[in-house]
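Supplementary Methods. Inverse-folding protocol.

Structures were first reduced to a discrete structure-token string of length 443. This string, shown here, constituted the complete conditioning input.
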């Protein structure tokens, strides 16, 4: 606020730089608030020392800072040089009472339009701040520890995001989200062993929206928890009709993993649906391992204490180290479909691609041997055709899932499939209706 009014008063400001510490919450959680305070003080001092003449530096609250650069400094090259050195300077380890700590920042830069300066200074300042904020958000998304300039596309993107957030909110109330199920097969025997639940959304306004789009938006606006819980609740209820040998896998987002109450919530869902925990498999994406490792480890242990299984999803996409794999008690690893799918694409390619094919075989077989070496069972995603299936089978025992066995299907289609396979639960077999919606109503 001080910063805004300063801009309003002298009207000299030309560039607004919004700065946010990366992962400050984790620093606080891991090292204590005392160390967190020392970090904030040190960063404030560094920002001040490196700010050009005539600039003002302000703490906006929490771990957010702003630097307002004067007109003179506001030519693009100068600002970029300054921003790069600021980011490098801040990233130097900070001496604290408990030892050196390193923290990075993300920054967003917006430059005042000439037109803005006329008339309403305060609203121009707010607008500038809002734009710098959008640019900073972008810098975070691009991988943190960097700066981004504001551009108009960010405004449009933010608008789309707000609209989708509103649609998710109302869609959740109106029950527009539903679980679909993808078969999981024992590749050796060809037998169905379980299903992975995948969220589906058919919005009356937006049409069919892929989970790859709406899950990140729900994560960002804090709706992933309620959304995921409502889907898991329905999946647990659907799975009541399946043969007790069949497992149910669910995907959990990094946000939920950070919620210390998550195991409690899951336990409540399991108890309410009288679903045996041993049949539930929680899939944690490899990208979660970028976060505070000891927190992830505590969470995995709590989940395992409930009796559920925990799998490492998207294995191979780049974040898990061998040490992490050894330390974290995963029950299974799932090789990402981006590698498995290549097995076929390469097989189809013309002669001359032989070398590339070997390379891809190599990645998948390396991941498989890694799992085998650590004695962690493996599931391959994205089994799309027989050639992939054959290659995978030659690599050893594993589970597989993919379009070869059909696309993910809704609860009613699963019931039909299981009934044909004679794999319905006793209670579903004797139930007057095999329609899961009917069963849910009568439950
Ligand atoms: P994922 O966990 O890696 O899920 C597998 C994705 O691969 C699914 O996409 C599935 O439909 C697709 N797929 C399955 N077999 C094949 C195949 O043979 N070939 C190809 N090309 N694709 C195949 P979907 O359903 O669009 O989900 C995308 C991602 O969204 C999931 O990736 C998962 O990360 C996330 N997701 C879905 N549902 C949920 C949910 O309820 N909660 C959370 N947190 N994430 C979810
Ligand atoms: Ca998954
Ligand atoms: Ca995957």
């Amino acid at each position: 606020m001080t910063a805004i009014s300063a801009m309003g008063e002298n009207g000299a400001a030309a560039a607004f730089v919004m700065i946010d510490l990366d992962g400050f919450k984790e620093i606080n959680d891991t090292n204590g608030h005392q160390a967190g305070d020392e970090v904030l003080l040190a960063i404030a001092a560094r920002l001040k020392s490196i700010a050009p003449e005539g600039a003002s530096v302000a703490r906006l609250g929490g771990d957010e800072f702003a630097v307002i650069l004067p007109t003179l400094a506001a030519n693009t090259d100068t600002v970029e040089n300054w921003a790069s050195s600021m980011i490098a300077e801040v990233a130097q380890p900070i001496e604290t009472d408990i030892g050196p700590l390193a923290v990075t920042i993300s920054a967003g830069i917006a430059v005042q339009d000439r037109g803005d300066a006329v008339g309403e200074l305060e609203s121009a300042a707010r607008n500038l701040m809002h734009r710098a904020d959008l640019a900073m958000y972008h810098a975070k998304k691009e991988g943190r520890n960097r700066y981004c300039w504001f551009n108009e596309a960010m405004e449009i993107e933010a608008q789309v995001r707000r609209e989708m957030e509103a649609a998710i909110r109302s869609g959740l109330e109106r029950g527009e989200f539903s679980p679909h199920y993808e078969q999981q097969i024992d590749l050796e025997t060809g037998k169905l062993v379980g299903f992975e639940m995948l969220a589906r959304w058919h919005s009356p306004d937006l049409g069919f929206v892929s989970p790859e789009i709406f899950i990140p938006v729900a994560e960002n606006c804090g709706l992933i928890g309620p959304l995921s819980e409502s889907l898991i609740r329905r999946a647990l209820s659907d799975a009541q009709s399946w043969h007790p040998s069949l497992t149910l896998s669910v995907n959990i987002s990094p946000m939920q993993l950070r919620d210390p109450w998550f195991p409690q919530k899951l336990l409540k869902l399991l108890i309410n649906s009288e679903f045996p925990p041993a049949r539930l498999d929680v899939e944690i994406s490899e990208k979660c391992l970028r976060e505070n490792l000891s927190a992830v480890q505590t969470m995995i242990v709590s989940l395992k204490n409930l009796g559920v299984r925990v799998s490492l999803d998207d294995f191979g996409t780049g974040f898990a180290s061998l040490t992490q794999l050894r330390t974290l008690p995963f029950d299974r690893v799932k090789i990402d479909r981006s590698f498995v799918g290549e097995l076929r694409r390469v097989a189809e390619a013309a002669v001359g691609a032989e070398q590339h094919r070997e390379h891809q075989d190599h990645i998948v077989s390396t991941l498989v041997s890694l799992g085998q070496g650590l004695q962690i069972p493996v599931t391959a995603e994205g089994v799309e055709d027989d050639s992939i299936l054959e290659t995978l089978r030659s690599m050893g025992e594993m589970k597989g899932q993919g379009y070869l066995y059909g696309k993910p299907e809704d609860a009613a289609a699963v019931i039909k499939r299981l009934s044909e396979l004679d794999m319905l639960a006793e209670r579903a077999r004797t139930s007057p209706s095999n329609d899961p919606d009917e069963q849910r109503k009568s439950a």
